[in-house]
Amino acid sequence: MKIACFLLLGNALAFTPSRHPSAWKKSPLRATVAPNGGVDSLATPTTVAAVPKVAQRWRKSTKQVATLGPASSTTEMIEKLFLAGADMFRLNFSHGAQEQKLDLLQKIREIEEKYSHPIAILGDLQGPKLRVGEFSNPDGEILEKGQLFRLDLDTAKGDKNRVMLPHPEIIAASEVGHNLLVDDGKVKLVVSGKGEGYLDCKVEVPGRIKDRKGVNTPDSVLEISPLTPKDRSDLAYQVKIGVDWIALSFVQTPSDIDEINGLIDQLLAPGQHRPAVMAKIEKPSCFDGDNLREIVKRCNGIMVARGDLGVECPPEDVPLLQKTIIDECREQGKPVIVATQMLESMIESPTPTRAEASDVSTAIYDGADAIMLSAESAAGMYPEESVAMQQRIINRVESDSHYRTFLHSKDFFPHNTATDAIITAARQISTTIDAKSIVTFTLRGSTALRASKTRPTVPILALCPFKETARQLALAWGVYPDLPGAGSYGYSVSEENMFSYEEPMVEEASDDFDLVLRNACRAALKKGLVADPDDLLVVTAGLPFGTPGAANIIRIVPAAGQAVGMAFALFPKPACLALL
């Protein structure tokens, strides 16, 4: 035996090799397969190959978001959407009563419990709706190209020459030459003059304008809160019932994110987990200066809301803006959803158009964390087929050799931290040894999100003691969260008293890390990520346990869980490098 010792001036790296993988004992994992296709806790022996029947459910990296509505409000249909690929369910607070959303949330939680897999729930706030008033003619008026048309604050019903615009903030913010788009751009007005309480406009794109049609202001930043009184009521309700993500509409500047964050802080009960905030990018002002970077920085995730974005921006710009948003999110390690009209024709057709399939593929090639269905799953005739079609496209794209080329066409460099060094090494090791999964133990989700940012070639299994954090991680690219029971994360205290976010308890079991490694193997089996006792897992963790964001150790573990192949440990103080 040879021993070499080196004095390191910075962090120390300890390397302890063990037996060659061929010497690892091929003992079977002990598990029972539940009737639903999942795997129960350790019990009677079985082979590692006894994977769940829904194993394919965990093979994709790009996640799927399905909006719930009249076509998908039953427990049976929600379960079908989950099994077809949905990782997050969107509750659209623009429609329906609050109590209906609670009913849907409870049904989702039942399915989550049945399959022992965290499911994310997104509460989507409506945001301000800017609309014109009413006309004397119930059929509205047809505006001719080049004619003058006035928007004012007069409550009288409109005619061919004018109509009420009950939004003084639009009148105040608009300048001569600014565009106003009515009814999703079907009618385009250009401001030619303004006065106290009115705008004179020239009709550039003619068409019929009817009662209460929406108005978009692509050239103006309005002095208006993104949260209406209805939104504030819905926000309080979302926090109360425990949604995992909250989507904010009508984001114009970074200060809008500060506003909702402040309100959430006020609404949280003592000790309550904080929901993640998602900004919907749908206004051109989000791209002014460094607004996009600051918006992404201040929230937890982004939605590319291509509906309003496509109205307020030229259509040819939207694909480029989509790529810009995705790149910024990947740079900062924040999940990003691409939404709106992805499989629009499947509202009434069992198959999508080729252009829609190409659109979904483009979002996946761009590196989006998730793709979303709206009316397709909420009100369409084929909700299950729409979700299944998305998964088929995901699987096809991710099996394409070009996918990795596009995915890594931009280099996103790791931060100068021990955690990022460990995560980067784990990705490289997993590729070198052909591991089946990277397993991360994470407290608040930061380690798992950093692993997701590197876009490894294998799934990321995130073990987290908090179900709320695990649910939020269900949105992240390649991350499949799992919930160890009380004591299985290396703690001997009860689940209720495990530890707080601010003062984590670190009462460790005597076989602390061995127990952690066994749980990693068990979770990989439950998700169907391993199929042979010799399948390898790359496990990262932070010691001592309970320290947020402190990944400082790597181990290579066979699926049988009996031996450890290699360990790296980063210590904060100078030490010796031992080779045994």
Rg computed from alpha carbons, rounded to a whole number of angstroms: 27 Å
- Helix and strand composition category: alpha/beta
Number of helices: 16
Helix % is 25-40%
Explain the overall architecture:
This protein has 16 helices and 23 strands. With 580 residues, it is an alpha/beta fold. It has an eight-stranded parallel β-barrel with strand order 2-3-4-13-14-15-16-17, surrounded by eight helices. Strand 8 (179-182) and strand 9 form a beta hairpin. Helix 1 runs parallel beside helix 11, helix 6 (291-298) packs across helix 8 (318-332) and helix 9 packs across helix 11. The chain starts with 11 loop residues before the first strand and ends in a 9-residue tail after the last strand.
What is this structure, in a nutshell?
The protein has 580 residues and is an alpha/beta fold.
Keywords, please?
580 residues; 8-stranded parallel beta barrel; 7-stranded mixed sheet; 23 strands; 30% helix; 19% strand; disordered C terminus
Please describe the topology of this protein.
Layout: E1 12-15, E2 63-68, H1 75-84, E3 88-92, H2 98-115, E4 120-124, E5 141-143, E6 148-152, E7 162-164, H3 168-173, E8 179-182, E9 187-195, E10 198-205, E11 207-209, E12 215-216, H4 229-241, E13 245-248, H5 254-267, E14 276-281, H6 291-298, E15 301-305, H7 306-312, H8 318-332, E16 336-339, H9 354-366, E17 370-373, H10 375-378, H11 383-398, H12 401-407, H13 418-432, E18 437-441, H14 446-453, E19 460-463, H15 467-473, E20 479-482, H16 512-526, E21 536-541, E22 553-558, E23 566-571
Parallel strand pairs: 2-3, 2-17, 3-4, 4-13, 6-7, 13-14, 14-15, 15-16, 16-17, 18-19, 18-21, 19-20
Antiparallel strand pairs: 1-23, 5-11, 6-10, 8-9, 8-12, 9-10, 21-22, 22-23
